[in-house]
Amino acid sequence: MADAKLSEKDIFEKVPVRKAILALAVPTVISQLIVLIYNLADTWFIGQTGDPRQVAAVTVSYPLFLLLGGFGNLFGIGGGSMISRLLGRGEAENAGKIGTFVIWSSVIATLLYSLVIFGFGRQALSVLGAEGETRGYAENYLFWTVVVGGIPMVLNQVLANIVRAQGKAKTASIGMSVGGVLNVFLDPLFIFGLHMNVAGAALATCISNVVSVLYLFGHMIRTRKESMVQLTLVPQRVKLSYMAEVFSVGAPAALQIVLASISNSVMLRLMSGYVEHAVSGLGIAQKIEMIPFQIVQGLSSGVLPLIAYNYASGNRKRMDSAVRYSLAAGLAVSVIMFAVVELSAPWLVRFFISDAATIEYGAAFTRMRCLALPFINIEFMLIAVFQGIGGAKQAFMLSFFRKGIFDLPLMMLADFLWPMYGLMLVAPVMEFLGGSLAVVLYRKQILADRRIPV
User: What predicted TM-score, i.e. pTM, was given to this entire model?
Assistant: First the structure.
């Protein structure tokens, strides 16, 4: 009930840091987990068909689907960070202009991407190694999630970030969650009731995002008179320097997704040389690791507005306290989730599919990939810090380092030295190096700006 009991300015300025983080981060983590649940529900219900080809189809489609998150990050995180900083500077009118700008920009950019997938999706899937029936299933999945459902999915992220940037984390959480809950009920209806198979899961995802967008738009319309951010139907003139700040923060966040998609594509291409059960096992392992991943991401996304607002308003002591507490909380969660996953990997994979070969591969892959969890927490939290303070160079460096420079040749080397299984150890190595680099850059930022306390 944080949104109802506390004003947005109180959360940003007066409430004790720990309580403010809980008010902002807990609803965000919950919404991230609910979104994850419906993603997991897709895989679970598809797995209940007993057809590894359909699970493999979702896995192969994932890099192209993942790119939608790049648009969501570019305009959502970039716009949300800028809005929070403008509010911290007392520029509410410009915050509203930025909000309108990122909404329209995200729609246009996503529409162009959806048209590209509509025209060249089949060729892209072939490059990723999809063949025969697997490719047919993957094409159906992409049609509903990207071609038809791309704009609702990206708008869902962008609108939630705009609402969260004002301190209304609970409202943003409800908006993202309402569609996710609906998706869980629609999956079995479409997959089994209407016999749509993997296309049914994709259609359910599309509809759930539409519902979430309608909820968030409805909230903005209902609260437009008292809102800190006044949006307009038609885009207003925005300073080029403000637009540049949006893209300078949003671009590294988008780059994380793009490079992750490229990295995942290379891994899938290498994995496609092995048995289809291994590809299915990798897909399920990636779903399982998303549980702690989403918790850490929710924590960092939730605290970002608090960091951005207090940085812009000059309260560096409060900002530093938020960083320290969030890092400690995220590390505790990461360690606990690491232990749980390592101990229960076969049961977790079996929850999605009963195929014995897929379970064997999936459990081994899950245990190896989850070695990265503690380091991901450090990376994501410090990336959020740089996004909040407008540290585009540091955010860009971290995003580009963890995916895109070393991991691609390292995957090829690892696959040569230890076929298939070596691929799974690349992520832990890269996240350890990325976490170490994040700490170095953060300490360097502190030394460069004495006003930010250690």
Answer: 0.73
